[in-house]
Design goal:
With 1090 residues, the protein is an all-beta fold. Helix content is 3%, strand content 50%. It contains 3 helices and 99 strands. The strands form 13 sheets. The protein has a 19-stranded parallel beta sheet that branches. The protein has a 15-stranded mixed beta sheet with strand order 3-4-5-8-11-14-17-20-23-26-29-31-33-35-38, with no helix packed on it. The protein has a 12-stranded antiparallel beta barrel with strand order 83-84-85-86-87-88-90-93-94-97-98-99.
Length: 1090
Amino acid sequence: MSTPLFQRRRGRLQFVSIALVASPFALFGALAHADCTTTGQTTVCDTAAPNPATSTVGTGNVAAEDNRTVTVQNGSTLAVGDTSAIAVRDNANITVQTGGTVSANAVSNSGFYGTGGNAIDFRNNSTLTVQQGAQVLANGTQLSGEAVNPEGTGNTIVNDGLIKSAHGAAIWFQNTSGGNTVINNATGTIQTDVANGNVMGASGNGSVDFTNRGKVIGNLIFAGGNDALHFYTGSSVSGSISGGGGANVITLNGTDSATLGTITNFQTLQKQDSGTWTLSKTLASMGVTNAEVQQGTLILQGNNGTYTGTMQVDAGGTLQGDALSVTKAVTNNGLVRFQQDADGSYAGQIVGAGALEKTGTGTLTLGAGNTYSGGTTITQGTLAIGADSALGGATGALTFNGGTLQLTGNVDVAATRAIDITNANGTIDTQGFTSTVSQGISGVGALTKAGGGTLVLAGDNTYQGGTTVAAGTLQLGNGGTSGSILGNVVDNGTLTFNRSDVFTFGGTVSGTGGITQAGTGTTVLTANNAIQGDTLVASGALAIGDATHTSAALGVSATNAPQSLRPMAGSSGSNVQIAANATLGGYGTVNGAVTNNGTVAVADALAAFANSGSGSLTINGSLNNAGTVQVGGAGVGNKLVVNGNYVGNGGVLAINTKLGTDNSPTDKLVISGGTASGNTAVRVTNAGGAGARTTGDGIEVVSAINGATTQANAFALANRVVAGPYEYTLQRGGSASADSWYLRTLQTVTEGTGGAGTGTTQPALRQEVSLYTAIPSLTLLYGRALLDTLHERVGEESNQATAPAGTSPVLRTGWARVIAQKGSRMSDGNGIYGNQGPAFSYDFGGVQFGADVYQRQREDGSHDHAGGYFATGRIAADVTHADGADAGRDTVNANTVGLYWTHFGPSGWYLDGVVQGTRYDADASPHGVNGLKTHALGYAASLEAGYPIALSQQWRVEPQAQLVYQRAAFADANDGAADVRFNSVNSMLGRLGVRVSKRWGESPERQHTAWLRANVWHEFRGETGTQMSSPDGGFVPFTSQLPSTTLELTGGLTAQVAKNGVFYASLGYQVSADRRLHGVNGKAGVRWGW
């Protein structure tokens, strides 16, 4: 028990309690507050004397102390001795205003709650506010005498001043359950003067919600409750921090930057507000199992590889670290930033709707399997991936903001991933691999391709900063119709175009690298490209300039090179290699040597420029041609200029020429200052020329200028060049230049070429003149073969089956035969240049079917036969030109119908008349040029008579005479080089012959006849005419004439093999009187009656 002692000091009543035995009120001050004024439940301590006040405010744990309001005003001091300065109970509101001080100097007093002489005591649901500049001090030596001691729960301490304890904790929570709140604002300090002491403690498992915006001097160690610690940037804790037991939460707040020191035993970490907090320790060492970045930035340090808890980044939050510090599992709905200053690999997984950013100068390698969908930004250093999924979900964007994306395999970036380059630019490093970006890349920045592999840009890219190929290959397109970039390219590797359409690239390509055309389409370069490396045209076509960009160039020249490179302009450093089936072309200039195994196409000779008009292509270097130089385009007038040597390696020079007289329009190869060597086949296509005689040098197609020379065998025609009736030849040298090459239609006559005298000149007539001129002669030979003679057509007349006298004239006899002839007609040496026409060797084959439709035998022994026939056959000839060359082959297919009437007199004499009509279809097949097809309708008539004279019963001699007339009219034709007209064919052929025969037989029904006949044939007309168009006075006429007189010797046999069946055959030989026509023929037939 205690005995109160009352005494009066300075007009105020004070209560001093002297401890007797163990009284809790021992040494307490008087219950009356002489220096503080109390009205009801409100106490105000002011600066009025006495100041400081030394009496305790309140009586502690009694109901009377509930709902108390205590205010220590500015400048007022409440300083007590070995007791509590303020001791109230529940729902109290205590304010220590600016400049106010509350202190206790406890030594041994247990206070009103028996918990020590604390400067301020209260129990539940109370609020203590310590304003800026105010102090609450525990100055005594009592270890349990804290500055503030909440005895219960639900209390809030707001400190903007100083709460300090000299020998113990500044704040002690007496409760074993429930919770209390401490808010230490920016100007607030909570301090213990105990070395390594704890500024705050607790007696049990009650929870504390501690907010620190100011200073904590000492350790901050919580007890066993579920505590919450809120740290703001700008705050500090000088000692260690521990959450103690329970499930504790630390929240990092504020708008500035701060670093969190040593901290343990906090299971949940939350980052709030817009500021940045750096954790100096790992999450595992802090005891964290759940981390969440709600706002601002949380920077991790150390190795969090062993962390197995959760990490969540909310929208508006940023988690920053490196490959070691970022946890292995992140749910990212905000931003994960890898600040990677040294190389490192992150093998974790990042999921969620958030984004990822790479900063720092080092290389970060991300593993596969990330699904975050907010996109990836590379701001610094290198981000290395081995799979696209390392960049998160396939719809997440990829932004280059100054960094490098390194591809460690054949990685194709997902086509659904938007890609952007900022003005800080970006780099893609393919190393030794091939990777494809199918979508277009946008943005204002520039792209650099690094590494030795291939980057395929298959989309249409719109980034505006230009492109650099630092190493390896940058390929535009992947074989389709997309794949493009804007702006210029600095190419120090290889720039490859791989598209299937016509693609125009307007940027300038420069640098030490090369260009490859790989696609099946056409790439058109329209700028002045001072590229120093080699160019390979592997497929498709590469065009240097179009019709509106004729100044376009490829390679270094004295005009487009930087000053430092001009000494190497036009050297071998800018060579172009053209592969088989590939094409180099255009209207511009190639600076460097060109090796062509494919095609060089000048101007509109390139298919993509078919409608662009004629032009020129210049090569400032040598041209080695093992392919085709296609100078000829849609029209005529293209020019290829080679300012260097031209070497033909079995290649082709293809040109268009309007074949006519000298100086006709033509495409041209111009060789300036160099030498043409090797061998090149010149293929000439006629550009609408009608053909004409050349009278001077001819048409210049290879021009040697500025001292250029050409070897004698450098060029030769690859094809026959014909127009009108003329053959153009390619010849070196003329009056203007000894080394230029010309097309001419003049030839010098030599022995065996026909025409004028040896050594003179004459037009070079093309072989088709001979070929076409021979056709009408063949129709005459065909008609003669079918008309033939009576005995060869139907056999021996004495074996003819006839209707008996007095019977009806009905069909009783049919016949059929085959005919074969082979012969040759030699020229007179002049060939087509003369009147006899060309030489030819011919063969004829045909079948003929006939029947008597009328027969009558008269009483006097005479009889008549009338019938008709159908025949089909072919005559073909190999024609020889005037110079002895094979001109080609003429083939005439024909179908014939005919009628005949034969009258046999009583003594055996006969008169045989035949008329026939024929449809001729002629096909002339020359060598190396288009042929000609035409047709004709012809008719013929024959009248033959014979008078047999019996020499004995078996032998007879029969003089014969025959007259044959033929006429045919051919349709005009065109063979692509000339119009061809045929004059009407007229022939009047006479024959005189004598036939000797012997007849024998086994019986009257088995009679046989063998015979031998000699004929003299004479052609009274027989000259045929053919005309070919030419500007030289219209159509030029040519003739062919069969020999006028021909001798023939024929032998035959007629055998009656059955009562009504006869077999007959013959074999003959003929030769003309001038011995220029030779021929043999064989015929066999059957006749049957019923």
